[in-house]
Write a structure and sequence with these properties.
Layout (H helix, E strand, L loop, with lengths): L38 H16 L11 H8 L5 H9 L2 H8 L4 H13 L6 H24 L2 H7 L30 H4 L17 H5 L3 H24 L10
Length: 246
């Protein structure tokens, strides 16, 4: 028996009320398949879906799902089904789920699928419990089957960031796409750059004389001096045949 979703209280009214602002650059553009879009319009809708779920920083050749795209174009699945297919794909798992802890992953998914920021830490905990008990697919299904998702996006609208405009402020909330795809804890575990790409430091004779590179450099210099003596100086004094043609 699945554990019921933990109760949490909304902390903001901003995205839960209708907006009355004049349309502008900060208003979200809505992509929907309700009115049987043309092939070109469907291309734009599919790209908007990729951009919403993966953001610009994650749109790669491996991200594309031609089979899902074909089903959507032929009317075999809805936009919500297409979004679900992208979310449970191996690519989404690798780029987002495996590179974050559960709390940060919940925040990313609430932003991308429900179009808003998480209310508070209690909501993070509530969805994290769902993720831990039902797995990634069960968590994604819970989000896309939620009343909030259906009421705002239905079956044929690509999710978008809702109500970025804030009253009393000259600028709206920043786009969720600016959020890095992984947190500090994952970043700190990444392998360090190779020593071959270390930043160049000013030459220090004292340091060089005590380094392991000293013997190698001295051997190379000795070899160069020996070649110069053999090919130029010794023939000049008649000690060896003239190899240089002098």
């Amino acid at each position: 028996m699945p554990i019921p979703l933990l109760n949490y209280s909304p902390s903001s009214q901003n995205h839960r009320v209708s907006g009355y602002e004049i349309l502008g650059d900060e208003q979200p553009r809505i992509y929907t398949a309700e009115n049987l879009p043309s092939p070109a319009e469907m291309d734009v809708l599919i790209l908007a879906s990729y951009r919403q779920i993966f953001h610009e920083q994650q749109i790669l050749s491996s991200t594309q799902k031609p089979f899902l795209e074909s089903q959507l174009r032929n009317g075999q699945i809805t936009v919500r089904d297409f979004i679900r297919g992208l979310a449970i794909s191996d690519t989404f798992r690798r780029l987002n789920y495996e590179s974050n802890n559960n709390y940060r992953f919940v925040q990313i998914c609430v932003q991308r699928f429900l179009g808003r920021e998480v209310y508070n830490e209690r909501e993070k905990l509530a969805w994290s419990i769902v993720l831990a008990t039902e797995g990634l697919q069960g968590f994604i299904d819970a989000l896309l089957n939620s009343e909030e998702y259906i009421n705002n996006f239905g079956y044929n609208t690509v999710p978008y960031q809702r109500r970025r405009i804030l009253q009393g402020r000259s600028q709206g909330e920043l786009p969720f796409a600016r959020m890095a795809r992984y947190g500090i804890d994952y970043r700190d575990n990444l392998p360090l750059p190779s020593t071959a790409y270390k930043k160049a430091e000013p030459f220090n004779l004292q340091t060089f004389l005590h380094s392991s590179d000293r013997d190698v450099v001295l051997l190379i210099l000795a070899s160069l001096v020996a070649l110069i003596v053999s090919f130029y100086l010794l023939p000049a004094f008649g000690l060896l045949p003239n190899f240089g043609g002098y």
